[in-house]
Write a structure and sequence with these properties.
Helices cover 36% and strands 20% of the residues. With 320 residues, the chain is α/β, with parallel strands linked by helices. A five-stranded mixed β-sheet has the order 4-3-5-12-6. Strands 9-8-10-7-11 form a five-stranded mixed β-sheet. It has a two-stranded antiparallel ribbon with strand order 1-2.
Length: 320
Amino acid sequence: MNLGQVDLNLLIYLDSLLRTKSVTRSANDLGITQPAMSNILKRLRDLFDDDILVRSSQGMSPTKFALELQSEVRTVVESMEEIIFREKKFDHKTSSDVFRIAVSDYVESTLIPPLLMYLRKEAPHVTLDLITPSDVNLSDLEMGYVDMIINRFDSLPQSFYQKNLWNDHYVCVYNKAHVLNSELTMDSYLKADHIWVSKTGMGTGERMESSNAPRLGWVDKHMKKIGRRRTIGLFTRHYQSAILLAEKSDLVVTLPSRATRFCEANLNLVISKPPFEITPIEIKMAWSPKVHKDKRHRWLREIISANANEPKSNTHYFNN
Protein backbone atom coordinates (compact mmCIF):
# COMPACT_ATOMS: atom_id res chain seq x y z
CA MET A 1 0.00 0.00 0.00
CA ASN A 2 1.19 3.52 -0.81
CA LEU A 3 -0.11 6.89 0.37
CA GLY A 4 -2.21 7.33 -2.77
CA GLN A 5 -4.27 4.33 -1.74
CA VAL A 6 -5.12 5.79 1.68
CA ASP A 7 -8.22 7.91 2.19
CA LEU A 8 -6.73 10.94 3.96
CA ASN A 9 -10.20 11.94 5.13
CA LEU A 10 -9.77 9.18 7.67
CA LEU A 11 -7.34 11.43 9.54
CA ILE A 12 -10.08 14.04 9.99
CA TYR A 13 -12.38 11.41 11.42
CA LEU A 14 -9.62 10.02 13.61
CA ASP A 15 -8.86 13.51 14.95
CA SER A 16 -12.51 13.98 15.91
CA LEU A 17 -12.82 10.53 17.49
CA LEU A 18 -9.74 11.06 19.64
CA ARG A 19 -10.97 14.45 20.82
CA THR A 20 -14.58 13.46 21.56
CA LYS A 21 -13.94 9.85 22.55
CA SER A 22 -17.43 9.23 21.19
CA VAL A 23 -18.72 7.82 17.91
CA THR A 24 -22.02 9.67 18.38
CA ARG A 25 -20.49 13.10 19.10
CA SER A 26 -18.01 12.77 16.26
CA ALA A 27 -20.81 11.85 13.87
CA ASN A 28 -22.80 14.91 14.97
CA ASP A 29 -19.79 17.21 14.70
CA LEU A 30 -18.91 16.02 11.20
CA GLY A 31 -22.48 15.85 9.92
CA ILE A 32 -22.69 12.13 9.22
CA THR A 33 -24.78 9.30 10.68
CA GLN A 34 -23.69 7.21 13.63
CA PRO A 35 -23.59 3.98 11.55
CA ALA A 36 -21.35 5.75 9.03
CA MET A 37 -18.99 6.85 11.80
CA SER A 38 -18.98 3.32 13.23
CA ASN A 39 -17.94 2.06 9.80
CA ILE A 40 -15.19 4.67 9.64
CA LEU A 41 -13.91 3.53 13.04
CA LYS A 42 -13.75 -0.02 11.66
CA ARG A 43 -11.76 1.24 8.66
CA LEU A 44 -9.37 3.07 10.99
CA ARG A 45 -8.88 -0.08 13.03
CA ASP A 46 -8.07 -2.01 9.86
CA LEU A 47 -5.71 0.71 8.60
CA PHE A 48 -3.69 0.96 11.81
CA ASP A 49 -4.22 -2.62 13.00
CA ASP A 50 -5.30 -1.21 16.36
CA ASP A 51 -8.60 -0.86 18.23
CA ILE A 52 -8.18 2.97 18.41
CA LEU A 53 -11.11 3.30 20.88
CA VAL A 54 -12.14 0.68 23.43
CA ARG A 55 -15.01 0.55 25.89
CA SER A 56 -14.21 1.36 29.52
CA SER A 57 -16.01 2.34 32.72
CA GLN A 58 -15.65 5.97 31.56
CA GLY A 59 -17.19 5.28 28.13
CA MET A 60 -14.86 5.02 25.12
CA SER A 61 -11.13 5.43 25.78
CA PRO A 62 -8.24 5.74 23.29
CA THR A 63 -5.70 2.93 23.18
CA LYS A 64 -2.07 3.62 24.02
CA PHE A 65 -1.25 3.60 20.32
CA ALA A 66 -4.06 6.09 19.56
CA LEU A 67 -2.86 8.45 22.29
CA GLU A 68 0.61 8.41 20.75
CA LEU A 69 -0.94 9.34 17.39
CA GLN A 70 -3.23 12.09 18.67
CA SER A 71 -0.90 15.09 18.64
CA GLU A 72 0.59 14.10 15.28
CA VAL A 73 -2.85 13.67 13.71
CA ARG A 74 -3.97 17.06 15.10
CA THR A 75 -0.90 18.69 13.56
CA VAL A 76 -1.61 17.13 10.17
CA VAL A 77 -5.28 18.21 10.24
CA GLU A 78 -4.32 21.77 11.26
CA SER A 79 -1.82 21.93 8.41
CA MET A 80 -4.46 20.77 5.95
CA GLU A 81 -6.88 23.42 7.21
CA GLU A 82 -4.19 26.09 6.91
CA ILE A 83 -3.45 25.12 3.30
CA ILE A 84 -7.06 24.84 2.18
CA PHE A 85 -8.45 27.92 3.92
CA ARG A 86 -5.45 30.26 3.75
CA GLU A 87 -7.10 32.43 1.08
CA LYS A 88 -10.33 32.90 2.97
CA LYS A 89 -10.11 36.26 4.69
CA PHE A 90 -11.99 37.48 7.72
CA ASP A 91 -13.46 40.98 7.66
CA HIS A 92 -14.61 41.97 11.13
CA LYS A 93 -16.48 45.01 9.81
CA THR A 94 -18.94 42.84 7.88
CA SER A 95 -18.77 39.65 9.97
CA SER A 96 -21.98 38.43 11.62
CA ASP A 97 -20.20 35.81 13.73
CA VAL A 98 -21.43 34.86 17.19
CA PHE A 99 -18.69 34.32 19.77
CA ARG A 100 -19.53 32.37 22.91
CA ILE A 101 -17.42 33.39 25.89
CA ALA A 102 -17.62 32.01 29.43
CA VAL A 103 -16.99 34.76 32.00
CA SER A 104 -17.80 35.41 35.63
CA ASP A 105 -19.82 38.52 36.47
CA TYR A 106 -16.56 40.06 37.73
CA VAL A 107 -14.97 39.73 34.28
CA GLU A 108 -18.25 40.59 32.56
CA SER A 109 -18.58 43.89 34.42
CA THR A 110 -14.95 44.93 33.92
CA LEU A 111 -13.86 43.62 30.52
CA ILE A 112 -17.05 43.49 28.48
CA PRO A 113 -18.05 47.22 28.59
CA PRO A 114 -14.91 48.50 26.78
CA LEU A 115 -14.94 45.45 24.52
CA LEU A 116 -18.57 46.06 23.58
CA MET A 117 -17.89 49.72 22.85
CA TYR A 118 -15.15 48.67 20.44
CA LEU A 119 -17.35 46.06 18.76
CA ARG A 120 -20.30 48.42 18.28
CA LYS A 121 -18.01 50.79 16.42
CA GLU A 122 -15.64 48.46 14.55
CA ALA A 123 -17.60 45.21 14.22
CA PRO A 124 -21.29 46.17 14.57
CA HIS A 125 -22.68 42.85 13.33
CA VAL A 126 -20.64 40.63 15.66
CA THR A 127 -22.61 39.16 18.57
CA LEU A 128 -21.29 38.05 21.96
CA ASP A 129 -22.97 35.19 23.81
CA LEU A 130 -21.86 35.42 27.44
CA ILE A 131 -22.29 32.41 29.70
CA THR A 132 -21.03 31.59 33.20
CA PRO A 133 -18.05 29.24 33.68
CA SER A 134 -20.21 26.84 35.71
CA ASP A 135 -22.39 26.31 32.60
CA VAL A 136 -19.55 24.63 30.71
CA ASN A 137 -16.76 22.12 31.23
CA LEU A 138 -13.31 21.49 29.81
CA SER A 139 -14.71 19.21 27.13
CA ASP A 140 -16.94 22.03 25.82
CA LEU A 141 -13.90 24.27 25.54
CA GLU A 142 -11.77 21.52 23.96
CA MET A 143 -14.39 20.83 21.30
CA GLY A 144 -14.81 24.50 20.45
CA TYR A 145 -18.44 24.69 21.61
CA VAL A 146 -17.22 27.62 23.72
CA ASP A 147 -14.78 29.99 22.05
CA MET A 148 -12.92 30.78 25.25
CA ILE A 149 -13.12 31.06 29.01
CA ILE A 150 -11.85 34.13 30.83
CA ASN A 151 -11.37 33.56 34.53
CA ARG A 152 -8.99 32.68 37.34
CA PHE A 153 -7.79 29.11 36.88
CA ASP A 154 -6.28 26.83 39.48
CA SER A 155 -5.03 24.62 36.64
CA LEU A 156 -5.58 23.95 32.94
CA PRO A 157 -4.75 21.00 30.67
CA GLN A 158 -1.40 21.52 28.95
CA SER A 159 -3.07 21.19 25.56
CA PHE A 160 -5.00 24.44 26.06
CA TYR A 161 -3.63 27.80 25.05
CA GLN A 162 -3.78 30.57 27.62
CA LYS A 163 -2.81 34.19 28.07
CA ASN A 164 -2.68 36.37 31.16
CA LEU A 165 -4.94 39.41 30.74
CA TRP A 166 -4.48 41.17 34.07
CA ASN A 167 -3.65 40.78 37.76
CA ASP A 168 -5.93 42.24 40.40
CA HIS A 169 -5.46 42.93 44.10
CA TYR A 170 -8.16 42.61 46.75
CA VAL A 171 -10.11 45.27 48.62
CA CYS A 172 -12.75 45.29 51.34
CA VAL A 173 -16.14 46.94 50.77
CA TYR A 174 -18.65 47.80 53.49
CA ASN A 175 -21.21 50.40 54.52
CA LYS A 176 -19.76 53.67 55.83
CA ALA A 177 -21.94 53.35 58.94
CA HIS A 178 -20.18 50.11 59.84
CA VAL A 179 -18.06 50.09 62.96
CA LEU A 180 -15.12 49.18 60.71
CA ASN A 181 -15.15 52.71 59.36
CA SER A 182 -13.35 53.92 62.47
CA GLU A 183 -10.39 51.63 61.85
CA LEU A 184 -9.95 48.47 59.80
CA THR A 185 -7.67 46.18 61.75
CA MET A 186 -7.33 42.43 61.83
CA ASP A 187 -9.32 42.32 65.07
CA SER A 188 -12.19 44.44 63.71
CA TYR A 189 -12.15 42.47 60.45
CA LEU A 190 -12.51 39.20 62.36
CA LYS A 191 -15.32 40.54 64.55
CA ALA A 192 -17.40 41.38 61.47
CA ASP A 193 -19.55 38.97 59.48
CA HIS A 194 -18.59 38.51 55.84
CA ILE A 195 -19.97 37.81 52.38
CA TRP A 196 -18.18 35.05 50.48
CA VAL A 197 -18.51 35.15 46.72
CA SER A 198 -18.32 31.41 46.14
CA LYS A 199 -18.29 30.26 42.55
CA THR A 200 -18.95 26.75 41.35
CA GLY A 201 -17.37 25.32 38.25
CA MET A 202 -13.85 25.18 36.91
CA GLY A 203 -11.19 27.71 37.71
CA THR A 204 -13.28 29.86 40.02
CA GLY A 205 -12.69 28.43 43.45
CA GLU A 206 -13.99 25.41 45.29
CA ARG A 207 -17.21 23.52 44.62
CA MET A 208 -19.48 23.42 47.66
CA GLU A 209 -21.06 20.12 48.66
CA SER A 210 -24.15 20.37 50.86
CA SER A 211 -23.07 17.33 52.85
CA ASN A 212 -19.71 18.82 53.77
CA ALA A 213 -18.44 21.95 55.43
CA PRO A 214 -17.56 24.70 52.91
CA ARG A 215 -14.03 24.45 51.59
CA LEU A 216 -11.63 27.34 51.65
CA GLY A 217 -11.92 30.07 49.06
CA TRP A 218 -9.11 32.32 47.84
CA VAL A 219 -9.38 34.84 50.69
CA ASP A 220 -9.80 32.19 53.36
CA LYS A 221 -6.79 30.22 52.15
CA HIS A 222 -4.64 33.28 52.80
CA MET A 223 -6.21 33.77 56.22
CA LYS A 224 -5.43 30.16 57.09
CA LYS A 225 -1.76 30.83 56.38
CA ILE A 226 -1.72 33.33 59.23
CA GLY A 227 -3.84 31.17 61.51
CA ARG A 228 -7.03 33.22 61.27
CA ARG A 229 -10.60 32.50 60.20
CA ARG A 230 -13.49 34.81 59.38
CA THR A 231 -17.22 34.31 59.97
CA ILE A 232 -19.32 33.94 56.81
CA GLY A 233 -22.80 35.45 57.09
CA LEU A 234 -23.79 35.04 53.45
CA PHE A 235 -22.73 33.07 50.40
CA THR A 236 -23.47 34.47 46.95
CA ARG A 237 -22.39 33.64 43.41
CA HIS A 238 -22.09 37.22 42.13
CA TYR A 239 -19.67 40.04 42.89
CA GLN A 240 -22.02 42.86 41.96
CA SER A 241 -24.82 41.58 44.19
CA ALA A 242 -22.27 41.10 46.99
CA ILE A 243 -21.44 44.81 46.84
CA LEU A 244 -25.13 45.73 46.88
CA LEU A 245 -25.74 43.44 49.85
CA ALA A 246 -22.78 44.90 51.72
CA GLU A 247 -24.25 48.39 51.22
CA LYS A 248 -27.61 47.29 52.64
CA SER A 249 -26.27 45.39 55.65
CA ASP A 250 -23.47 45.23 58.20
CA LEU A 251 -21.63 42.58 56.19
CA VAL A 252 -18.17 42.99 54.67
CA VAL A 253 -17.17 41.70 51.25
CA THR A 254 -13.54 41.13 50.26
CA LEU A 255 -13.16 40.96 46.49
CA PRO A 256 -10.97 41.92 43.51
CA SER A 257 -10.64 45.69 43.13
CA ARG A 258 -11.88 45.86 39.55
CA ALA A 259 -15.26 44.64 40.71
CA THR A 260 -15.68 47.95 42.57
CA ARG A 261 -15.38 50.17 39.48
CA PHE A 262 -19.11 50.87 39.41
CA CYS A 263 -19.44 51.75 43.08
CA GLU A 264 -16.49 54.11 43.45
CA ALA A 265 -18.79 57.15 43.54
CA ASN A 266 -21.19 55.55 46.04
CA LEU A 267 -20.89 57.65 49.17
CA ASN A 268 -22.56 54.94 51.25
CA LEU A 269 -19.64 52.58 50.72
CA VAL A 270 -16.08 52.37 51.99
CA ILE A 271 -13.39 50.72 49.88
CA SER A 272 -10.41 49.74 51.99
CA LYS A 273 -7.27 47.65 51.89
CA PRO A 274 -7.55 44.32 53.72
CA PRO A 275 -5.64 44.13 57.03
CA PHE A 276 -3.59 41.17 55.77
CA GLU A 277 -1.81 40.10 52.59
CA ILE A 278 -3.84 38.46 49.82
CA THR A 279 -1.99 37.32 46.71
CA PRO A 280 -3.39 39.08 43.63
CA ILE A 281 -5.40 36.91 41.27
CA GLU A 282 -4.41 36.27 37.66
CA ILE A 283 -7.20 36.54 35.11
CA LYS A 284 -6.45 34.46 32.05
CA MET A 285 -7.99 33.79 28.68
CA ALA A 286 -8.00 30.10 27.72
CA TRP A 287 -8.94 28.46 24.43
CA SER A 288 -8.73 25.16 22.59
CA PRO A 289 -6.07 24.14 20.04
CA LYS A 290 -9.01 23.51 17.73
CA VAL A 291 -9.60 27.26 17.27
CA HIS A 292 -6.06 28.49 17.79
CA LYS A 293 -5.31 29.19 14.11
CA ASP A 294 -8.81 30.31 13.16
CA LYS A 295 -8.59 33.85 11.76
CA ARG A 296 -11.80 34.96 13.47
CA HIS A 297 -10.65 33.65 16.79
CA ARG A 298 -7.23 35.25 16.49
CA TRP A 299 -8.92 38.60 15.83
CA LEU A 300 -11.15 38.14 18.88
CA ARG A 301 -8.20 37.30 21.12
CA GLU A 302 -6.31 40.34 19.90
CA ILE A 303 -9.11 42.80 20.64
CA ILE A 304 -9.82 41.20 24.03
CA SER A 305 -6.16 41.57 24.95
CA ALA A 306 -6.18 45.18 23.77
CA ASN A 307 -9.27 45.99 25.85
CA ALA A 308 -8.05 44.20 28.97
CA ASN A 309 -5.62 46.96 29.94
CA GLU A 310 -5.93 48.36 33.43
CA PRO A 311 -8.94 50.73 33.37
CA LYS A 312 -8.68 54.28 34.56
CA SER A 313 -9.97 54.32 38.10
CA ASN A 314 -10.81 56.88 40.72
CA THR A 315 -10.64 54.23 43.44
CA HIS A 316 -9.53 55.75 46.70
CA TYR A 317 -9.26 54.21 50.11
CA PHE A 318 -11.26 55.88 52.84
CA ASN A 319 -9.11 54.08 55.42
CA ASN A 320 -5.37 53.39 55.51
